[in-house]
């Protein structure tokens, strides 16, 4: 009787976690759909940002408009869930993206941005397809590099904007990056990517293969 009650209480306790995971998955699926439609229809590289409101809106939107960029954010979130201190990897990615924006605003040259983003997407996808968990330091370095180039690429759309719109833009992009990467981290933890046996779930390999394919397509388009 006691065991039955205990199992029932555990089942009830797992329901909120499952519902939260389904919400994260649904939100990310919607973002991927929006990004895919934006990539197919095409969006202007330069935005007309004349006030703080437009800066905030474009800041919220830019990280999810480019499918290769969005995939990279999701991948770094999933991979960060492997480690107990993986939140530091996710946070470093977001901070590196902000640094990339600052580098572009200072008119410092960071060549091969699109190629670097595509390559990092392929690397993330490869890590997701590997049977064993990735190395913490390697993942952190790739994550920082990807964030740096992504922030630099996003800043190309706001050259010439005023100081306050720029601040609003950076705030918006920070909120979106943090929300997506932490949602992906929650999904990774819920599906068991951080289990003690240090073996990544086989089902995540499908996502890794898709990420690699997307990265290869964007790499080809960047080179041509």
From TrEMBL:
Protein keywords: Membrane, Transmembrane, Transmembrane helix
InterPro entries recorded: HupE_UreJ
Superkingdom: Bacteria
Residue spans crossing the bilayer: 20-40, 60-79, 86-106, 112-129, 136-153, 159-183, 204-223
Pfam families, A to Z: HupE_UreJ
Annotated protein name in UniProt: HupE/UreJ family protein
């Amino acid at each position: 009787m006691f065991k039955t009650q205990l199992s029932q209480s555990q089942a009830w306790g797992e329901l909120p976690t499952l519902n939260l995971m389904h919400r994260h998955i649904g939100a990310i699926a919607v973002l991927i759909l929006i990004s895919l439609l934006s990539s197919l229809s095409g969006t202007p590289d330069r935005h007309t940002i004349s006030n703080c409101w437009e800066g905030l809106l474009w800041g919220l939107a830019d990280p999810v408009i480019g499918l290769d960029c969005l995939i990279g954010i999701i991948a770094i979130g999933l991979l960060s869930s492997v480690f107990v201190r993986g939140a530091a990897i996710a946070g470093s990615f977001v901070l590196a993206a902000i640094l990339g924006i600052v580098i572009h605003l200072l008119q410092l040259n960071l060549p091969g941005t699109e190629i670097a983003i595509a390559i990092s997407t392929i690397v993330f996808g490869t890590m997701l397809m590997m049977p064993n968990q990735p190395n913490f330091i390697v993942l952190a370095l790739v994550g920082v590099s990807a964030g740096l180039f992504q922030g630099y690429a996003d800043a190309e759309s706001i050259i010439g904007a005023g100081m306050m719109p720029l601040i609003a833009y950076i705030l918006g992009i920070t909120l979106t990056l943090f929300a997506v990467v932490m949602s992906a981290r929650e999904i990774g933890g819920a599906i068991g990517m951080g289990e003690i046996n240090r073996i990544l779930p086989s089902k995540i390999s499908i996502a890794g293969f898709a990420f690699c394919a997307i990265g290869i397509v964007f790499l080809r388009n960047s080179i041509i």
